[in-house]
Specification:
Chain lengths: 436, 212
């Protein structure tokens, strides 16, 4: 992937302040007008729950944005600013709040589910990051990932050559072709760099499942990355650029559907934010792989044999449940291949985040906090006494494995697509190839 | 003095309250909102209505950790609404000066009970505000002013009910007037804007197929 677009973040307070001011829409204004500072959101945030530090109270992380709202959109705020009673937004606000905005928030939106006045706090943090990013106040690793995503197409710098090598390996392993650049295919498959480099079993599972289902699909050698660093760091321009690349290849390949991989924020990016980022509806149906598998299973296009009797549980990726309503699909799939699937006490729309969403996983200075936040997940797993944890997000999987390793727990993390592929009916002898 | 409080100052308070509330809501709506262009997975209308209704109740997952605040919050709001709409003098006032019709008022014992519940709730909420590290960090002067003005209006209202001293009624009305004047400029506005904040969150979540 070569690009002429560049990403060179610089410290620019004025630009950041201006961008922050432009984030106030009537949702934000109604949220700040309604907030009574009850602090109930604190108990919904794993960073507060695990540290007890009141600075991690979700609504407190929005003080810079609230300051802008108060001073620009309220009577007393304007008056106090004019009289010099309150200090205007300054670079110090960006310095003081950067860790709260990026290190201690995964954009998981659990706080948004509990606010008595209905404030969607994650929506506001996402907006606040736009101002911080424009001012140049963001973690270096996120800046680096964004730069690589813009310049190479992958936040990890994964090239087509690397994916191509994986594909050859997968074709040898499965005996099936992995379709690439097939014009007129029904589905365009997207991947995350983490899957390519860390969990290639997802790609082989996808290949086997879609082959059995007779789904016409393809990968693109031009754009294969689904993740979107622009959304994580809070740069809508970059986010739109990355989304447009996906939409371009989808158009060029004349597909009608796009498959989001096992990645939570990639699903949010392409399914829910892409149209808003480019300013018009997109002419493609976007499905998360879990939605597609559930659809294919219910339509009888994929069939499985047998079930694992291992006691296991499911970790809901936040973006799927709280931003996409994908709650029942993974459970139907799990129940079809597992006889002892048990739920954590808080699951579905009230699940606890893995601790690494929203770019926190890429943020080195947040690692201590991230591991502290994992203690909630540890307690949940200990309560159930399971040794297998299934999820549907490569980033969650990575972070969960990190926490499990750190705590020396005997728990294996498995991708849901991989689990379904494991129980697929065996291919019949002489079965024709329908995937290319 | 009482003529001023019961006459021009009352009219002033009503004008500030009405114009302030309408103006504040207009200012919120004038901030604009981009249309969600993503293909919907569910209904925004159902989502908005559902969230407005559901957020009257805490999620079961959060009850244990927030029970003090939840109980105190219910006590204050239920007690206050009961006093506001079912105390005999208020029903009479609404009938004579605003609506032209009335409804049965609550008996004296119910008034006392409601007042005690509301007072206890308000005091507990305020104590939590000054004692809990989270609310201490979040609290601004506005939060205290709103609590104290509400408390003053409620105290003088209870004292006025006994009608042992005519001036107490005037004092109560003065308290209410101060509250009304302060209302549109404070976070007391949540009494109106919670429909907007809950509704907009619910609408977006509903489009995404999420029960928020």
């Amino acid at each position: 992937m070569s690009s002429t677009t560049t990403y060179e973040p610089e410290l620019d307070f004025e630009k950041g302040a201006d961008v922050l001011k432009r984030q106030i829409d009537w949702r934000v204004a109604s949220y700040f007008s309604s907030c009574v500072h009850c602090g109930l959101c604190a108990e919904a945030c794993q960073f507060y729950v695990e540290t007890g530090d009141p600075r991690y109270t979700p609504i407190y992380k929005l003080e810079p944005l609230k300051k802008v709202w108060r001073q620009e959109y309220t009577f007393f705020g304007k008056m106090a600013k004019a009289l010099g009673i309150t200090k205007p937004l300054s670079e110090k606000d960006f310095v003081d709040w950067e860790d709260l905005v990026y290190d201690s928030c995964t954009l998981c939106a659990r706080c948004s589910m509990v606010c008595p006045v209905g404030n969607d706090i994650a929506y506001m943090i996402r907006k606040e990051r736009e101002g911080f990013s424009a001012a140049g106040f963001a973690p270096d690793e996120l800046k680096g990932a964004t730069k690589r995503a813009v310049e190479t197409g992958s936040p990890m710098g994964v090239t087509w050559k690397a994916l191509s090598a994986q594909i050859k390996h997968i074709e040898r392993e499965t005996g099936l072709p992995v379709p690439v650049d097939v014009k007129g295919a029904e589905y365009l498959g997207l991947l995350s760099s983490l899957e390519i480099m860390g969990f290639p079993e997802y790609i082989s599972s996808l290949t086997r499942i879609l082959h059995q289902a007779g789904v016409s699909w393809t990968l693109s050698s031009e754009t294969f990355e689904a993740t979107n660093s622009g959304i994580q760091i809070g740069d809508s321009k970059v986010a739109a650029e990355l989304v447009e690349r996906v939409l371009k290849v989808a158009t060029d390949l004349e597909v009608s559907n796009i498959i989001s991989p096992e990645c939570g924020h990639a699903y949010t990016a392409i399914r829910w934010e892409s149209a808003n980022l480019i300013g018009k509806p997109i002419p493609f149906r976007v499905v998360h792989i879990v939605e597609l598998l559930d659809e294919l299973k219910r339509n009888g296009r994929i069939s499985t044999t047998g079930k694992t009797d291992v006691k296991l549980t499911f970790h809901d990726p936040c973006n799927l449940v709280r931003k996409g309503g994908v709650v029942e699909e993974p459970r139907r799939l799990l129940n079809s291949v597992a006889s002892d699937f048990v739920e954590m006490k808080q699951h579905g729309v009230m699940n606890w985040c893995c601790g690494g969403g929203g770019g926190v996983s890429a943020n080195d200075r947040a690692s201590g906090l991230r591991l502290a936040a994992f203690n909630i997940k540890k307690r949940q797993l200990d309560e159930l006494g399971v040794n297998t944890l299934v999820t549907a997000c490569a980033n969650c999987r990575n972070i969960l494995e990190e926490g499990i390793e750190h705590n020396e727990m005997d728990v294996e993390v498995v991708g849901l697509t991989e689990l379904i592929a494991e129980y697929l009916d065996p291919p019949e002898a002489g079965e024709s190839d329908s995937t290319s | 003095m009482s003529d001023f409080i019961l006459g021009p100052f009352w009219n002033f308070a009503v004008i500030v309250f009405t114009a302030g509330v309408v103006g504040r809501i207009a200012m919120i709506l004038m901030c604009g909102l981009s249309k969600d262009l993503a293909a919907a997975r569910g209904s925004s209308v159902t989502g908005a209505v559902g969230t407005v209704a559901r957020r009257f109740f805490p999620r079961k997952e959060t009850v244990k950790s927030n029970r003090f605040h939840i109980i105190a919050g219910y006590m204050f709001h239920i007690g206050l609404l009961a006093l506001l709409f079912f105390a005999a003098p208020h029903v009479q006032f609404l009938k004579n000066h605003l609506l032209g019709f009335g409804w049965p008022a609550m008996p004296h014992w119910a008034f006392i009970l409601s007042a005690e519940i509301a007072f206890a709730g308000l005091i507990l909420l305020w104590l939590r505000r000054v004692m809990h590290p989270v609310t201490r960090l979040l609290t601004r002067l506005d939060d205290h002013l709103a609590a104290w003005l509400t408390f003053f209006a409620m105290v003088t209202g209870c004292l006025a009910l006994f009608e042992s001293f005519a001036g107490l009624r005037v004092l109560h009305i003065l308290g209410v007037e101060l509250l009304m004047i302060y209302f549109p400029f404070s976070n007391l506005m949540h009494a109106f804007t919670f429909f907007l904040s809950r509704g907009t969150t619910g609408a977006r979540a509903g489009r995404h197929g999420v029960k928020a």
